[in-house]
Amino acid sequence: MRRIALLATLLAAPLALGAPASAHDIWLDPTGSGVQVLYGHPHEPELPSAGKLMSLTAYEPSGTVALKANLESGPAPALRAAHHGDALFAASYDNGYWVRLPDGSYRNASKRMLPQADKSLWSVKFAKAVSGPTAPWDKVVGQPLEIVPLEEPASASGKIRVRVLFEGRPLNGASVVATDGVNFKSDADQARATTDSEGVAVVSLRRSGPQVLGVSHRVTPSQTPALADADSYGATLAFTVTDPKTN
To answer: Where are the domains of the chain?
Structure first.
């Protein structure tokens, strides 16, 4: 799977506290020698924080391996973990507390520290990526917000059925967004599908190649109401479609 760029308007961004045009999220890009953790937008990528990466796991056909991601310096700094072989990769990323101040600026802090904030939330992000023909692509790994494919992603033809789970239960009414994972897409140009009562959505795929699906879910009040008004969850699923018949 070649480098996958995150869909530009995938989810409500923590910095914008609800403005979908400013999406930030994490996604995973498997390579032949490992997996890279990516963050931001395709047109303005940012280096993710190693300290905010809570876990990175490779679910191999024969077992589970905990990976350690390291910051690599150089002309193109990256957060990457070594791994060889097919796997379903999964990561969790605590993006912390964010507030919007009355002047419109944003701070990576809780409302306890900045009680004058007019909006606040806690932001947590989850990512999965399917790499290789023997990867356990249908495994439910137990992320609080998770996209689970219901058919083999690499063979998806024009569309793919997925189930969205929140805290292990189907999430009804969630908007699943898809792009080619490479180019900036405006809201009007994004493929979207809404989950039904079983948490299932049928998402259109416009062409073969890299894909990134994403979903967001916000819970109010926050589990930590002294620190934030709401909890914001985001999840992505990255894979590559090899079937040339996709639309």
So the answer is: 20-241
